Amino acid sequence: MVTPIDPTSLAFLMAENRSMPMHVGGLQLFENPEGAGPDYTRQMYECMRDVDEMSPLFLKRPYRSLRTAGQLVWKQDDQFDVDHHVRHSALPQPGRIRELLDLCGRLHGTRLARERPLWEAHVIEGLHDDRVALYTKVHHALVDGVSAMRLLQSVLSDDPDERGMRAPWDAHPRSGAEPRVRDRSPVDLAEVPVQALRSALGLTAEAAGLPAAVVRTLTKGLRNETSALSLYAPRTIFNQRITGSRRFAAQDWPIARLRAIGKATGTTINDVVLAMCSGALRAYLRELDALPDSSLVAMVPVGLNAKQSHIANPDGGNAVGAVMVQLATNHEDPARRLDLIHGSMRDGKEALSSMTPMQIVAMSALGQAPAILTPALRLQGLLRPPYNVIISNVPGPRSTRYWNGARLDGTYPLSIPIDGMALNITCTSYDDKMAFGVTGCRRTVPHLQRLLVHLDDEVAALEKAAGVA
Amino acid sequence: MVTPIDPTSLAFLMAENRSMPMHVGGLQLFENPEGAGPDYTRQMYECMRDVDEMSPLFLKRPYRSLRTAGQLVWKQDDQFDVDHHVRHSALPQPGRIRELLDLCGRLHGTRLARERPLWEAHVIEGLHDDRVALYTKVHHALVDGVSAMRLLQSVLSDDPDERGMRAPWDAHPRSGAEPRVRDRSPVDLAEVPVQALRSALGLTAEAAGLPAAVVRTLTKGLRNETSALSLYAPRTIFNQRITGSRRFAAQDWPIARLRAIGKATGTTINDVVLAMCSGALRAYLRELDALPDSSLVAMVPVGLNAKQSHIANPDGGNAVGAVMVQLATNHEDPARRLDLIHGSMRDGKEALSSMTPMQIVAMSALGQAPAILTPALRLQGLLRPPYNVIISNVPGPRSTRYWNGARLDGTYPLSIPIDGMALNITCTSYDDKMAFGVTGCRRTVPHLQRLLVHLDDEVAALEKAAGVA
Question: What molecular function terms (GO) are annotated for this protein (chains A, B) (predicted)?
Answer without folding.
Answer: acyltransferase activity
